[in-house]
TrEMBL record:
InterPro entries: FldB/FldC_alpha/beta
Keyword field: Iron, Iron-sulfur, Metal-binding
Organism for this UniProt entry: Thermoanaerobacter wiegelii Rt8.B1
Family note: Belongs to the FldB/FldC dehydratase alpha/beta subunit family.
Domain of life: Bacteria
Protein name as catalogued: 2-hydroxyglutaryl-CoA dehydratase D-component
Length: 427
């Protein structure tokens, strides 16, 4: 597979053959499950034993961890919960429940090159073609019974307008308990109390469904670990503007495992400890750095060719990985997590997101900004002009492109190449 893909090497022919075997058996969900599990296992051992020397130790660690987390969640659905990227998974970590988040699963299915089949299945069952492809891929896998139902589902009302209808549909289809956490747009004491009350209900529901108690001291320990992790995130950012760290497109998106769903785990704390040590050791900044807004098109050929292990251009970061970097109240973790959800820079009015982007840009000092507007994501596309105006105000070249982070059929490679090359040449 090409650079930055699921396997992290150039074994494209092997993967395509394997993809065709999976597609030929889509009417046999048990067999497809075994094939996907075998593929994930093979990927895990491949990246464990055939390490790319261009990749620092921290990203090797993250690569293995991300693959393993998906594999473990799928292997034991009765100890798993389906969540979205912004769900408060601290409760799951504290109760040893495996989270499976929609966005990651769909990305991995795109890495297997079967997202088109899953998306077409979802649309044939009545899903709108304008629905986010992350959600359509996940729904398609559910429709084909490739995904075994979990014991619980949890999502939030914030950011993504597809979350609630998708989770409601899946909950009804599988008869699985669902809790939707309603997040107010604006921060206030009343808003914190409102969300905290819901989080207490979530904890009670998890205890009921999984027949185990939430240890509040363990939840506090998870939050304490999360605070240590966020301190390391801030330290990393202090170096990001001065150093030439070289994550690939895929690794920058893998960072979402660490900055969101699994933050608070000891493994992710260890990852950030390694990451900070790695960035301290890399050379001083050279070439041109690009800061990404929202998502990165990890399967788009032009972006892979220009940014993966390039001497000329490197990824300076993306705002989605730093949507919240402050400390959480360790004494009252329910209150602390409620505040975290409300204060997320992606929650509420666009001005909050723009202010966060400005902070990150002033710290990282990138040479250019790229916003890849993922089709179906109104949140991303709706703020483009405002972010473009911010870039103009800061005197930084800005490029936006429309495309799809999952469904490769929606990317116009020729048009993307022309605009991307013109932008990079300008830098």
């Amino acid at each position: 597979m090409r650079k930055g893909s699921l396997w992290g090497s150039d074994k494209m022919d092997t993967v395509k053959i394997y993809t065709n075997i999976i597609k030929d058996n889509m009417d046999k969900p048990e067999k497809v499950n075994k094939l996907i599990n075998f593929g994930l296992t093979a990927a895990y051992y491949y990246v464990s034993f055939f390490k790319d020397k261009r990749i620092p130790k921290s990203l090797h660690y993250l690569n293995k961890y991300s693959i393993k987390s998906i594999k473990d969640s799928l292997a034991n659905p009765q100890n798993s919960a389906w969540v979205n990227l912004f769900a408060p998974s601290e409760f799951l970590i504290a109760m040893d429940i495996k989270p499976l988040f929609i966005e990651a699963y769909s990305s991995f299915m795109s890495g297997f090159f079967i997202e088109d089949y899953l998306i077409d299945t979802a649309e044939s069952r009545g899903m709108s073609n304008t629905l986010c492809s992350y959600h359509k891929t996940f729904i398609g896998a559910s429709e084909l019974n490739i995904l075994k139902k979990p014991k619980f589902m949890m999502t939030t009302s914030m950011i993504c307008d597809a979350n609630i209808p998708t989770f409601k549909y899946l909950s009804k289809k599988h008869g699985v308990p669902l809790y939707i956490i309603d997040i107010p747009y604006k921060y206030s004491k009343d808003a914190v109390v409102y969300v905290k009350k819901q989080l207490l209900e979530v904890a009670e529901k998890l205890e009921e469904v999984f027949n185990r108690k939430l240890d509040t001291d363990k939840l506090r320990e998870v939050v304490k670990t999360e605070n240590k992790t966020r301190a390391l995130m801030r330290e990393y950012l202090n170096h990001a503007g001065e150093k030439r760290f070289l994550p690939t497109m895929t690794f920058e998106m893998y960072m979402l495992f660490a900055s969101h769903v699994f933050i608070g785990s000891k493994e992710i704390l260890h990852f950030y400890e390694m990451l900070v040590e790695d960035i301290k050791r890399v050379p001083e900044r050279s070439g041109k750095s690009i800061f990404f807004i929202h998502l990165l098109p990890i399967f788009e050929k032009n972006f892979k060719d220009y940014f993966n292990f390039s001497d000329k251009f490197h990824i300076a970061g993306s705002d989605l990985n730093y949507d919240f970097v402050d400390e959480i109240d360790e004494n009252d973790p329910f209150k602390g997590i409620a505040e975290k959800l409300i204060l997320n820079s992606f929650n509420g009015e666009i001005n909050r997101k723009v202010a966060r982007i400005k902070e990150l840009i002033e710290k990282i000092k990138p040479d250019g900004i790229i916003q890849f507007c993922h089709l179906g994501c109104k949140q991303s596309m709706g703020g483009t002009v405002i972010i473009k105006n911010l870039a103009s105000e800061l005197g930084i070249p800005f490029l936006y492109l429309d495309g799809d982070c999952v469904d490769k059929r929606n990317n116009q490679e020729g048009q993307n190449r022309t605009r991307l090359e013109a932008f990079l040449e300008m830098l």
